[in-house]
Design a protein that fits this description.
Blueprint: E1 4-6, E2 20-21, E3 46-48, E4 64-65, H1 66-71, H2 90-98, H3 100-103, E5 109-110, E6 115-127, E7 135-149, E8 155-169, E9 179-189, E10 206-210, H4 211-214, E11 219-225, E12 241-252, E13 259-272, E14 283-286, E15 292-296, H5 303-314, E16 335-336, H6 341-359, E17 367-372, E18 389-394, H7 395-411, E19 419-425
Parallel strand pairs: 2-13, 15-19
Antiparallel strand pairs: 1-9, 3-6, 4-8, 5-6, 6-7, 7-8, 8-11, 9-10, 9-12, 12-13, 13-14, 16-19, 17-18
Length: about 425
Amino acid sequence: MPAITSVTRWARGTAAVSLFTVLLMPAGATAYAEPAPAKTDSGSHFVDAATAHPGDLQDLPDPVPLRTYLQRDKGHAPDLQAPAQPADEPDLRTECAKQEAAAKTKTGWLKSRFESCYKRHYDLVLRDRNNKEKTRGRLIFDSWVLGFAHDGTRQVDFVASVEDIKVATDGDEDAKEWRLGQHFSTTIDASSSDPDAKLTEPTVTKRDELLGVWDPRPSWTLIYTSPDKGPQHAQGNMQRVLAVLDMTTTVNSPNVDPYVEVGSYISNFRFDYAGSIAGKHKGAVFTQARVELVMSQKDPAVNESALHIYDALKRPERTFPSFLGKSVPGEKEPLHRLVDAKKQGDQRENSIKECKKIWGDYSGTRLQCDEYPFASTQEGSLKGDKRFSVRLIEGVDNRTGGERLNNMYINNRILDGDPFYVKITP
């Protein structure tokens, strides 16, 4: 179990208040251990509308936009100015809306190592305190978190928002008194980070407001940074800081127990000062984003490299060295970058020996020995499991393929040991 250093924690309640907690950890997520759901007493509380029987909602009016609801009470008529739109990247929001299935998961949709998006649609109903079969209100809203990691500086920004609020109430329940909260906390994975790992949080890490406050000002920004001590990568210290961001979503009414969803959104990110191997000397990335080296068999610049990798992944029986049951990683099993120049050179020499065993002396030709997995990966020809392939291909093609690989490393801040995949298109 990795050591986790706590940076901040929001106090999620007291003994005097019972919480209704919804936990939705995705399969395979192991960033931290969540507490078991708290039990509720006989008090009223908000619950997911999906758990309500359709008949439970019959006595409620149709949900209306919050501004329409507020304007019904002239004594609480709000400013008629339209709500401000969140100040974020419109292209990312548009793409995120199209990735609905991924965006609503706890880790959101990871567009790249530098852009992430979470969008969750909530539909909650308020149970009556004395009659659990009766609903007193309904709250609908969208919760957003857009993430931006910076290539070139140790900074990660999150633009969070609560949008499209709609409400319905029955009896004396008053939605003007309902509150929504987004509460952020962070932890540092000390066992995976380099020594003296530090994270600087924004001054404000939680926002708990009345619905009428969220409506005109739906968005807010959180900026996380990590201090560095200047370049130390030559001494082996890349000043990596691996952090986990955790958002808790809350809904409250003065008359009921609060709705609390711990870990409604989780983001894993890393700061580093790795030097030239990562292109820009320092930066930040979302570590759970899937990185792929993509090559096409129709690309004349790398078609021989692409065909070799395709055969290794899909038709390993056609590759050398040959043995029964051979399989080669990179498609379903990730490859991992190897930065050590000497080990890379040793793997290249070993692969060239394999080529010469099969095809003899090819010096003086335009051919070069192509190897897959690459010499710059931990899965190269000296790993010891023989799950690799060598083939003679045209030299220019081989060098171009190597350039594409190096560009992928740099463009994605792939550091020593970082995973990536390979995809060959027709």
